[in-house]
Amino acid sequence: MGRTIVEFTGGMSFVGKGASGHEVHMDAGENVGGADSAPRPVEILLSSLGGCTGMDVVSILRKMKTEPVSLQIELQDERAPEYPKVFTKIHLIYRAEGDVPEENLIKAIEMSLAEYCPIANTLGGISEISYEASVVAS
């Protein structure tokens, strides 16, 4: 079982620390009592989704011997208007650069979203997750 501790540090600021020992700082905007000193928890969740699937995609492409020179993932989200304002749709836009056949990129993305990324698979139970992919030769 994993373990993460999130600690209140004043104002509306929190610091989370997981098993790796690295800290994640979170804060709210000034309009709700925060100092706007760190990302919001929802921003971190979306960044975590991008990082999780991105690591999968790079790893899979390495195994295919078609590692990208760069990979960018843009996440566009829609949320329900009422609280708890869950994500209803998340669209990921993968932009790879390098000698990566587009079919390899698509296969890696689909494997990540369907099999490997626990964040995508958790959010996918609540949100509609879609993607698009493009490759630019370097």
Give an account of the 3D structure:
The chain has 138 residues and is α+β, with helices and mostly antiparallel strands. It contains three helices and six strands, in the order E-E-E-H-E-E-H-H-E. It has helices spanning 41-63, 102-116, 118-123, and strands at 5-10, 13-17, 23-26, 70-79, 87-97, 128-136. Helix 1 packs across helix 2 (102-116). The longest helix is centred in the middle third of the chain and has 23 residues, at 41-63. The mean pLDDT is 97.
How are the strands of the largest sheet arranged? 1-2-3
The rounded Rg comes to 17 Å
Mean pLDDT over the full residue set: 97
* Tally of discrete structural domains: 2
Largest sheet composition: 3 strands, antiparallel
What kind of oligomer do you see? single chain
What's the total count of β strands? 6
Write down the overall geometry.
globular
* The top level CATH class name of the largest domain: Alpha Beta
What is the name of the CATH superfamily of the largest domain? K homology (KH) domain
Name the helix and strand elements from N-terminus to C-terminus, one letter apiece: EEEHEEHHE
- Kindly state the percentage of residues in helix: 25-40%
SS strand fraction? 25-35%
Query: Which class do the helix and strand fractions yield?
Result: alpha+beta
Distance between the termini: 43 Å
CATH fold type of the largest domain: GMP Synthetase, Chain A, domain 3
